[in-house]
Amino acid sequence: MRQLGSAEAAVRDALVPSRNAADTPLYDSGMWPFRYGIACLGVACGSSPTAIIGEPAIVFVSDSSAVYRFEDRNNDAIYDHQERTEFFTAAASPTGLNSATGLLALSGTTLLVTNNSRLNETIPAVNNILRLEDLDGDGAALSVGENQVWFSGFIADGSKIAPISSLTRGADGAVHAAVRGYDSTMPDQIYRFFDLTGDGDVDDAGEVTLVTNIEGLAGDIAIDSTAAYWYVSAIEPPTRYGLFKHESGTTTLVVDTDSLVGESLRLVSSGIDLLNDAPVFSVGNQENPVRGTLATLRGTELAMIWTGPSSELSTDFHDFRVLEDGSIIAVRVATDLYRGPLHRFVDGNGDGDFLDSGEAMRVHDPREAEANGLPQLRSPAAVSGSVR
To answer: What domain range is 308 assigned to?
Structure first.
C-alpha cells in the first residue's frame, strides 16, 4: 500500500472538482463528507486527509449485458471516465450475455463470466461460463478468438446446469460456482471446475464435479485454505439470513440474524469473500437493513471492519471482492440517479479494519463518467479484480 504523492494528488484534484461556489459537494450533496474529490467514507474528513491506496489494480464490473474494465493508468487512485472501457458485450457472444452475476478475474486481461441465458426463440436456455481474454492489447475481448465458451452448461449426465450466481477460486486453483436451483427438483448446489486436459475449457469427462447440495443458497460462496465453503443463505422467516460453513460433508450455521439483535444489526445477502482466511460479509442495521457495512469473524466474535455513514442508508454493497493485496473493491447498489459507484478499502495501519482516516475511498463516480458523455452503469451485478 502507498500514499498519493503530491504530483498524483494534483492530477486527482484536477479530475473531479470537489466543491462548488456554495461549498457543497458537486456530486454528493447531503450524502457523504467530501474533500479533494474523494469521499472519506465512514470517518470525518480531517483538515488534510491523505488517501491510503492499495497496489494498482484492474477491476471488472458486469452491468446488464456488458462487462466493463477499469484501469488506473495515471496512478491517481481513481478510475475516471477515460479509464473505463467496454471489455465485452452481448453482441459479441453467440448466446448473448444475460444475468452476468458471476465474475472471476484470472488476471488483468483474462476473465471468466457467467452467462445465464434467457429462454426465448433464438437463445437456448443454457447457463454457461465464458472465458474472455484481451490478446491484442486493446483493452477489450471483442476480437475473434478472444471470447469462448469455457463451460457449455451441461453436466456429466447430459442435463443442463441451473443458473450460476457466482464464481470463486479455491486454494487448489480450481474454479467453484454457486448454482441457484429453480425448485425442489433442482436444489441449490456448489460445483467444482478444473481443466484437466489443458484444452481451454471444462467440458471433458471429470472436469465438472458436484461438491454438495445446499438449501437456500443466497448467491456468493467463498473457500478458505482448508476447502471449507462459506456462504450466506436464507433461513426462516424469508427475510432472515445466516452465515454458514460447509466442511467435510457437514454444514454449520455460524451467525444468524438472531445472534446480531444485540448489535442492532442483521445479515444481508450481498457478497461474501475471505480476508486472512476469515469470512467478510455485509450486514445492515435493524431499522434499515440495506445500509452497507462490512463485518468479519475473529474466532467466534463478530467484528465490524467498515461502517458506512449514517446518512448513507440506501446504498448497500451489491458485490465486493478481496484483492491480492488484502484491499477490498466494492460496487454499490444502483439508484435511479447514482449507478454503481466503486469503492476501495485499504488497511493502512494494519489494525485489521478500514475504519481509520483515508482507508476507504470512492474510486469511480458514475456521474463523472456521465458528465463526460458516457452512460452510467445500468444494473451492476458483480465485481472482480486483479492487482497488476
So the answer is: 54-387
pTM of the model: 0.81
Using the structure block, give the residue that is written with the C-alpha cell 472436469: 207
Block mean pLDDT (10 aa), the chain, length 388: 39 32 30 23 29 77 85 86 89 78 90 76 70 93 92 85 88 89 74 94 93 77 86 72 86 79 66 89 64 80 76 60 90 63 89 90 82 74 77
Residue 89 belongs to some domain of the structure = yes
Beta pairing partners, 111: 105, 132
Give which of 357, 358, 364 is closest to 341, Cα–Cα: 364
Which residues have CB under 8 Å from 52's CB, separation 6+? 1, 2, 3, 346, 348, 358, 359
Cα separation of 55 and 325, whole Å? Answer: 7
* Residue 197 one-letter amino acid: T
Whichever domain contains 248, its CATH number is: 2.120.10.80
The torsion defined by the Cα of 44, 286, 282 and 48, in degrees rounded to 10, comes to 0
Helix (H, G, I), strand (E, B) or coil at 259: helix
